[in-house]
Amino acid sequence: MSASPEYPTDPQALTDADWRERLSAAEFRVLRQAGTEAPFVGEYTDTTTEGVYRCRACGAELFRSDSKFASSCGWPSFFTPLAGDAVIERRDNTLGMERTEILCATCHSHLGHVFAGEGYPTPTDLRYCINSISLTLDEAEA
């Protein structure tokens, strides 16, 4: 990935002030402050368009549409990231729950959480529950 005004060369070197200039207030709250967007309102919740989902903050490739599935949970759901090193998993004990937070491995922005053992008919039995606002979709060429 090359640097552009939209995507930084070294996103981990950016300060909160830099991120505030690059992201909208809602994007900053979710991506940089580990917020959560409301369920069933995100741009990609029900999208079935083919393509690659990227981190909205840095442009890193995260998920492919062929791993997206309808979970009816209110957020886009994927059963696996694009590659094992595309995301970082981190223990999250906020809100009185034990969860696994998912971060972009390139810029360490908050994406959502991963859940296991929920019984979805997917190859991994995992649900990567991702905030739409954390993503952009590069549509596949027809």
Structure keywords:
mainly beta; three-stranded antiparallel β-sheet; single chain; disordered N terminus; Metal Binding Protein, Guanine Nucleotide Exchange Factor, Chain A; 142 residues
Q: How are the elements arranged and paired?
A:
Layout: H1 16-22, H2 25-31, E1 51-55, E2 61-64, E3 68-69, E4 77-78, E5 87-92, E6 99-104, E7 110-116, E8 126-130, E9 135-139
Antiparallel strand pairs: 1-2, 1-9, 3-4, 4-8, 5-6, 6-7, 7-8
User: How many structural domains does the protein architecture include?
Assistant: 1
Radius of gyration, in Å, reads 14 Å
Give the tally of β-strands. Answer: 9
Give the spatial strand order of the biggest sheet. Answer: 3-4-8-7-6-5
Largest sheet: 6 strands, antiparallel
Tell me, what is the CATH class?
A: Mainly Beta
Mean pLDDT: 90
Shape: globular
Roughly how much helix do the residues carry, as a percent range? Answer: under 10%
* Amount of beta strand: 25-35%
Annotated CATH topology: Metal Binding Protein, Guanine Nucleotide Exchange Factor, Chain A
Uncertain spans: 1-5
According to CATH, the homologous superfamily is Peptide methionine sulfoxide reductase
The CATH architecture designation is Beta Complex
Query: What is the rounded distance between the termini?
Result: 23 Å
Explained architecture:
With 142 residues, the protein is mainly β. The protein has one domain: Metal Binding Protein, Guanine Nucleotide Exchange Factor, Chain A. The protein is built from two helices and nine strands, in the order ααβββββββββ. The strands form two sheets. A six-stranded antiparallel β-sheet has the order 3-4-8-7-6-5, with no helix packed on it. Strands 2-1-9 form a three-stranded antiparallel β-sheet, with no helix packed on it.
